User: Which sequence fits this backbone?
């Protein structure tokens, strides 16, 4: 029997743990929603307990595992298996999560940035299968990315490569990123920008067709609300979606010039805006790339669905092969 | 005897050919200034003839060479050894220069982008010695770059990776790059931007201390003139140098977030502006990178001097080892 991969995805609301077959399909999984209240040690125990329970339930032994991959948002020092900082878990600073989980297992444990994990998952099982060089970009509340170079994840010196969300594309922008800088791609183009952009347009006198309550709290504006606006042909929602697409298109163009990949794969919640969004991203990209594309190049949507977090984390263990 | 490296640098005004020792020192070189008027085939003959003459003059045989590396500005399809486009040579389109030179030699011939060649030279012999991951950026009339990942040049799918000069850092800018886009790093930060920036400031009423003739042609504004302005404490020259430093600082910050290298090496003519320029580049960079630098990181000046073009081209042959 081919060994089973184990993946753990530490999200902002869910802790997902899954056993994954080597074809990328999920054998079994479990989801906890109480992990953000745990201490560092408690989280390591929770992850280890979940894995052991999933193995027992599926009558598998630890030796049936190829390894355990853990994906976590934030800055990860890959070589040391350390969470440097993460916005998902309060108080986690320079925490050696990999070794804390490794203490419970003899198979190798890998800790990486969640976007790196998703990128490798798409490369192994999804839209990037068969490609040698690609970039994966996930666009939701924030923007994360992973870089595949010569069939391997490129992590950089610390392990923080691929932070295209923090590259600056509009230096004079009033929009501030969580990192403290103005005009990062993340600040102007993804979920965290939507409340500002919506309020700005309403305050400038633009009229929304969305039926919002009196005293509406603009901080509630998110991708779902704008998707509803798009469906209701709301000009404010549509303008914001196009604004986001404009900056994402520029971001992808910059990635194309910097890395000359064969493929860029897009994932994340804002892709639910569909073709209206994707077509604008592509339009902005191709208007700039024009005659500088010398070989086949594509911008495509991720193929792994909602389980991309755990499947991606599990795929990291295939790097060991 | 260790084999000798041969390097050829096809510049916009000079064709340099050199024999280089494996420690990166030049054994002998020759320079032509008539190559831009040649046809494609004539250029291949000129390069081959120069190499054979240099070998004869130094009592060396072709078998004493490790290989021949050729650096050329523009878009190079590395795997095929083809110049896709280059602004240095008129009419060169999709020309297989590597094979045309290879026809004269039995040792391997390599053709690459000139900034890639310089990057590899700095990595092997200069400021990047001992580093595994670095980016080299040359700032002169245009901006070129090369990426070293895991001790090797990363060229991307076509061979055009590292075009940070074409990444867009000010989308709303009125300044247009030779590529046709607005707000590329190249359009706003390097030699090609200087005439526009100078005229703009003068037309806005700013006073220069430079003693310019009546009817001065602004297209003559270049790095040398601004260096003179800097030395004469000219406020217009200094403001433009700071503007350039601002965008280069943002460009370096974007490279840092994208690739997380250990080191960025800067070269090119505009570095003659000295510490006034470099300090501003560093200031802009560190103001943005702040607490997101988790491991030692440096921005340094290239160590190979004016021969970086041919030495870099020659160093490409060490990739064969």
Assistant:
């Amino acid at each position: 029997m081919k060994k089973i991969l184990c993946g753990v995805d530490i999200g902002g609301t869910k802790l997902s743990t899954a056993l994954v077959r080597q074809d990328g399909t999920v054998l079994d999984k479990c989801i906890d929603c109480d992990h953000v209240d745990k201490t560092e040690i408690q989280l390591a125990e929770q992850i280890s307990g979940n894995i052991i329970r999933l193995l027992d339930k599926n009558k598998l032994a630890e030796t049936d595992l190829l390894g355990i991959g853990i994906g976590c948002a934030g800055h990860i020092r890959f070589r040391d298996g350390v969470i440097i900082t993460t916005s998902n878990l309060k108080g986690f600073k320079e925490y050696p999560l990999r070794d804390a989980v490794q203490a419970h297992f003899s198979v190798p444990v890998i800790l990486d940035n969640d976007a790196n994990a998703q990128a490798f998952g798409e490369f192994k099982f999804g839209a990037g299968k068969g490609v040698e060089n690609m970039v994966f970009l996930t666009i939701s509340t924030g923007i994360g990315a992973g870089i595949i170079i010569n069939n391997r994840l490129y992590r950089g010196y610390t392990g923080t490569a691929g932070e295209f969300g923090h590259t600056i594309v509009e230096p004079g922008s009033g929009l501030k990123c969580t990192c403290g800088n103005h005009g990062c791609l993340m600040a102007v183009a993804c979920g965290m920008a939507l409340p500002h952009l919506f309020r700005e347009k309403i305050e400038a006198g633009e009229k929304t067709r969305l039926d919002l309550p009196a005293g509406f709290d603009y901080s509630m504006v998110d991708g779902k609300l704008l998707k509803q606006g798009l469906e209701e042909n709301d000009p404010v929602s549509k303008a914001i979606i196009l604004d986001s697409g404009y900056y994402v298109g520029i971001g992808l163009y910059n990635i194309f010039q910097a890395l000359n990949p064969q493929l860029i794969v897009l994932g994340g919640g804002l892709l639910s805006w569909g073709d209206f969004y994707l077509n604008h991203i592509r339009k902005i990209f191709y208007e700039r790339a024009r005659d500088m594309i010398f070989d086949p190049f594509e911008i495509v949507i991720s193929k792994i669905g909602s389980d991309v977090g755990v499947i991606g984390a599990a795929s990291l263990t295939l790097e060991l092969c």
